[in-house]
């Protein structure tokens, strides 16, 4: 049994849709308003630029993103990335709840290939994400 903030079953279902069906490339999760549960916030298809715009500047989020990129030899690859978005401007209570829920979510999302902790938009640059997949 995991300790930490519980994760709604719909979060896992959305992840499985991305992982198995591949009809969405992005799932964004947030903490509930009372900071007691991880809940889905968005599920759909976003470009990298749209993903960056979708992240709030003063609230935490978790993002599962199907990152598609080309290798040095030109081969197409994709990796499922879990991004922990915890901007400096987020309230301390939210940061604590986010940190408490991070491992629970990571353990439930079987199939995530890369985990990235971020606090600044520069941590989420396309090239930066691709470099972390190796």
UniProtKB/TrEMBL annotation:
<dbReference type="Pfam" id="PF00241">
    <property type="entry name" value="Cofilin_ADF"/>
</dbReference>
<keyword id="KW-0009">Actin-binding</keyword>
<protein>
    <submittedName>
        <fullName>Actin depolymerization factor/cofilin-like domain-containing protein</fullName>
    </submittedName>
</protein>
<dbReference type="InterPro" id="IPR017904">
    <property type="entry name" value="ADF/Cofilin"/>
</dbReference>
<comment type="similarity">
    <text>Belongs to the actin-binding proteins ADF family.</text>
</comment>
<dbReference type="InterPro" id="IPR002108">
    <property type="entry name" value="ADF-H"/>
</dbReference>
<feature type="domain" description="ADF-H">
    <location>
        <begin position="2"/>
        <end position="134"/>
    </location>
</feature>
<dbReference type="InterPro" id="IPR029006">
    <property type="entry name" value="ADF-H/Gelsolin-like_dom_sf"/>
</dbReference>
């Amino acid at each position: 049994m995991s300790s930490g903030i519980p994760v709604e079953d719909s979060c896992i279902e959305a992840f499985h849709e991305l992982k198995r069906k591949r009809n969405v490339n992005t799932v964004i999760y947030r903490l509930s308003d009372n900071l007691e549960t991880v809940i889905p916030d968005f599920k759909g298809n976003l470009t990298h630029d749209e993903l960056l715009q979708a992240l709030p500047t003063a609230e935490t989020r978790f993002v599962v993103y199907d990152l598609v990129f080309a290798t040095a030899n030109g081969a197409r690859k994709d990796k499922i990335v879990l991004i922990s978005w915890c901007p400096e401007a987020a309230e301390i209570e939210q940061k604590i709840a986010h940190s408490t829920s991070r491992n629970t979510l990571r353990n439930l999302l079987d199939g995530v290939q890369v985990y990235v902790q971020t606090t600044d938009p520069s941590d989420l640059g396309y090239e930066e994400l691709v470099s972390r997949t190796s």
